Amino acid sequence: MDALSVAPAYTDGVTRGTCTAAIGVSMLAGAEDGPGFGREGFTCADVENLWDAFTCALTQTSCQGEKPVVLEMGSQTPYPWTPEVLPVQILRVGNLALVAVPFELTTMAGRRLRKTVQDRLASVGVDTVLVAGLSNAYAGYVTTREEYALQDYEGASTHFGPWTLAALQQEADRLAVALQSGTSVSPGPTPRDLRCCQSTLQTGVVFDDKLLWVDFGSVYSNAQASYTRGQTARVTFWGAHPKNNLRTQDSFLRVQRKSGTSWVNVAYDWDWETRYRWQRNDCVPTLACSHVTVEWKIPSTATSGTYRIRHDGDWKSGWDGLIRPYTGYSREFTVGP
Fold first, then answer.
1. Region of residue 272 (phi > 0: left; psi between -120 and 50: alpha; otherwise: beta)
2. Would 196 be classed as within a structural domain?
3. Terminal alpha carbon distance of the chain
4. Same domain, 32 and 162
5. What is the pLDDT of residues 287-307, one digit of tens each?
6. How many CA atoms lie within 13 A of 129 on its CB side?
7. Do 71 and 150 reside in the same domain of the chain?
8. Where are the alpha helices (DSSP H) in the chain?
């Protein structure tokens, strides 16, 4: 995306190109729906006052056009701060085409991109085109050339320069031609694999603690003995920090119904009727205890019977640094009409 040649058919009639990623000073001032670091008329002196370690020197480049560049994202070392290899997709489902892009498009930019694809795919029965923004990656905004010239927040946040939308239209059109004719396309360059080199300002979990006479997963506040549909069952456990294990493709909780001698899962943490809450509990002396509260708003469709709430988590030892799983159960309770 930072070095695409864009054909005259997609620009103002002249061959143009995209730029090494950069953001403009207006991005720091914020948008119409809220201020950023400063205000309209934000200056480099303001930036330096906010970030002592950051030296601001506005530059003007021929590639970035009207944009007063405040930060050259694509020139940072050892790695760019904006990904330079980005995915663009078109998916067709019957008469619908989805254009997947890793940007936030303004309304008019989206209309122009949709029209490019619509005009190309109309011959194969596509009459509806939708832009799916923020798909598979992220690299700021995309504006029209006219919006870019204004250098409001969105134009300043269009990283790859004034012809970014034209470049997207060109690449989407290329994909649409291939989709129309049933031909294959090159996958293009491979994005950098930076999994080894990530930085974060967040601290990790130091350790988890509990009172001596309880175990991780023990119940602090139990469920009632019975509920009716529409009520909320609530249980609080002695737990641990959820960052120890995010339980991806798994669940921090399960609502289970008794079936004979077995327990059947009927709800998880992704269901609308459940809620998982974690909170540090300042038990002495370490201040590292946690309470986990699980709520289940019993739906009107719940089957009458015997239930329990299960909580799964992982705790980190302060002695050996190892992370170990734990499980806790509420009391059994009945649900009736």
1. alpha
2. no
3. 59
4. yes
5. 899 999 999 999 999 999 999
6. 23
7. yes
8. 25-29, 44-50, 107-121, 145-150, 153-156, 164-181
Residues 254, 169 within the same domain: no
Q: Which of 158, 181, 204 lies at the terminal end of a domain, its last residue?
A: 181
Q: Are the C-beta atoms of 184 and 59 separated by less than 8 Å?
A: no
> Would you say residue 213 lies in a domain?
no
The residue type at 99: V
195 domain-assigned: no
**CA gap 237, 50 in Å, rounded:** 42
> Which of 103, 176, 184, 167 shows the shortest CA–CA distance to 137?
103
HSE, CB side, 13 Å, CA atoms: give it for residue 163: 26
> CA nearest 176: which of 79, 283, 100, 107?
100
- Contact call for residues 59 and 17 (beta carbons, < 8 A): no
Q: Which residues of 245-267 are buried (b: 16+ CB within 10 A; e: fewer)?
A: beeeeebbbbbbbeeeeebeebb
The pLDDT of residue 204 is 84
CA-to-CA distance for 285 and 60, rounded, in angstroms?
A: 57
**200 within a domain of the structure (yes/no):** no
Domain extent for 302: 219-336
Number of domains into which the chain is organized: 2
- Answer with the one of 181, 204, 230 that is the final residue of a domain: 181
The answer to whether 298 and 273 have CB atoms below 8 angstroms apart is: yes
Type of residue at 100: A
pLDDT tens, 230-256? Answer: 999 999 999 999 999 999 999 999 999
Task: Give pTM, 2 decimals.
Answer: 0.69
Pick the closest to residue 269 from 284, 281, 283, 255 (CA basis). Answer: 255
The type of residue at 242 is P
State the Rg of the chain over Cα: 27
CATH number at residue 263: 2.60.40.2300
Q: Tens digits of per-residue pLDDT, 141-157?
A: 999 999 999 999 999 99
Query: 3-class DSSP state for residue 253?
Result: strand
| Same domain, yes or no: 171 and 305 | no
* Residue 119, C-beta contacts closer than 8 angstroms, at least 6 positions apart: none
